From TrEMBL:
<dbReference type="Pfam" id="PF22919">
    <property type="entry name" value="ATP-synt_VA_C"/>
</dbReference>
<keyword id="KW-0406">Ion transport</keyword>
<keyword id="KW-0472">Membrane</keyword>
<comment type="similarity">
    <text>Belongs to the ATPase alpha/beta chains family.</text>
</comment>
<keyword id="KW-0139">CF(1)</keyword>
<dbReference type="InterPro" id="IPR027417">
    <property type="entry name" value="P-loop_NTPase"/>
</dbReference>
<dbReference type="InterPro" id="IPR024034">
    <property type="entry name" value="ATPase_F1/V1_b/a_C"/>
</dbReference>
<keyword id="KW-0067">ATP-binding</keyword>
<keyword id="KW-0066">ATP synthesis</keyword>
<keyword id="KW-0547">Nucleotide-binding</keyword>
<keyword id="KW-1278">Translocase</keyword>
<keyword id="KW-0813">Transport</keyword>
<dbReference type="InterPro" id="IPR050053">
    <property type="entry name" value="ATPase_alpha/beta_chains"/>
</dbReference>
<dbReference type="InterPro" id="IPR020003">
    <property type="entry name" value="ATPase_a/bsu_AS"/>
</dbReference>
<feature type="domain" description="ATP synthase A/B type C-terminal">
    <location>
        <begin position="249"/>
        <end position="335"/>
    </location>
</feature>
<dbReference type="InterPro" id="IPR055190">
    <property type="entry name" value="ATP-synt_VA_C"/>
</dbReference>
<protein>
    <submittedName>
        <fullName>F0F1 ATP synthase subunit beta</fullName>
    </submittedName>
</protein>
Length: 352
């Protein structure tokens, strides 16, 4: 839709200081360029040759010149469990809720790495802590800063040209510094800032609103941890605002709802089977349990940052690939496959 496209005016004006003169010399009407910059002419209605000429003047690509989507949109991470069940919101706030040794900093480091691959600028607001795992986050952040002024200056410098992913510890929420940073950044740049909040002291696991309002919640699950299924994101509790309203593709939303329903029933049956055994459940429930077991195994995935430890190559799946695979599991196409064959890997085999 036309209103979902914006011209990156700060980038354009910074790279082409005398924009009106330069546009005229490039054969463009000054009034047209002015109206595009002020929004009087929607970007979607501009002639392609005009946009190409502006990009050439700025020495950038059309992707850099045009910002797509001002509303709620998901960021595709290539991590199956996240993209399917609790998508990251572009420009939103993501909360990591975990107890000690659940891998929240490893997931943040992996998230940073994957967003760099997507062209994000990655910044870590260092809480000056030496907790285990923080070195992985520092290694995957392009920029690490300790003070609010350093973080602000870095974001202001980068934000015209790139989306920004900012990793922040809860201590910055409690001190009020994150709120102050948000206020200072309201006028700085055109592209959104996505904030990933962690709690390195792991004090928030039992709190309902540990970080304040969130757009995405990734709650870690101790049962998955005990069985070495990573990322150990609770598939029932973890959620995202893109699941509300018409923000997801209809096929994605339908598949997500079916998967969540199956996993919820699988967990109910697992508790029952532990007490009474398989003989006490119906044939239909037995089938649902086994499909839930396969889906849970499939949603485990090797990370790039963990390759030195797991000796498994990191996997990136597109959202389309994840949805197609999950639908096959839900529809029973993998009923003859052992869950162990689906565990800790990427795509399903074609022969399944």
């Amino acid at each position: 839709m036309d209103e979902e496209l914006q011209l990156n005016v700060p980038l354009l004006r910074r790279r082409v200081p005398n924009l009106t003169t330069a546009a005229r010399e490039a054969g463009l009407r000054a009034a047209t360029v002015s109206n595009l910059c002020t929004g009087k002419i929607p970007v979607g209605r501009a002639e392609v040759r005009t946009l190409v000429a502006l990009a050439n003047l700025a020495g950038c690509s059309l992707d850099e010149l045009i910002i797509r989507g001002s509303g709620v949109r998901m960021i595709e991470t290539g991590i199956k469990a996240l993209d399917l069940l609790a998508p990251a919101v572009r420009g939103g706030t993501i909360g990591f809720v975990a107890r000690p040794n659940m891998g929240q900093l490893v997931l943040l480091a992996e998230f940073m790495l994957r967003m760099k691959k997507r062209g994000f600028a990655t910044i870590f607001w260092d809480p000056n802590s030496d907790v285990p795992g923080i070195q992985h986050v520092q290694a995957q952040s392009e920029f690490t800063h300790s003070t609010i002024d350093e973080v602000y200056s870095r974001i202001a410098d980068l934000r015209d040209e790139k989306d920004v992913l900012l990793g922040v510890d809860r201590s910055k929420v409690l001190s009020g510094e994150l709120l102050s940073l948000r206020e200072r950044l309201k006028e700085a740049g055109a592209r959104p800032i996505t904030i990933a909040l962690v709690d390195i002291k792991c004090e928030v696991a039992d709190e309902e609103a540990a970080y304040g309002p969130l757009d995405t919640l990734w709650r870690f699950d101790s049962d998955l941890i005990s069985r070495n299924i990573y990322p150990a994101i609770d598939p029932i509790v973890s959620t995202s605002t893109v699941l509300e309203g018409a923000y997801l593709d209809a096929v994605h939303l339908a598949t997500q709802q079916r998967a969540r329903k199956l996993l919820r029933r699988y967990r109910e049956l697992k508790a029952l089977i532990t007490i009474q055994g398989f003989d006490k459940i119906s044939e239909l429930d037995s089938q649902l349990y086994k499909r839930g077991e396969r889906l849970e195994a499939y949603l485990g995935q090797p990370f790039y940052v963990s390759e030195p430890y797991t000796k498994k190559t990191g996997e990136w799946l597109t959202l389309y690939e994840t949805i197609e695979d999950v639908k096959r599991i839900l529809d029973g196409e993998t009923d003859a496959v052992e869950p162990s064959e689906l565990f800790f890997r990427g795509r399903l085999e074609v022969s399944y």
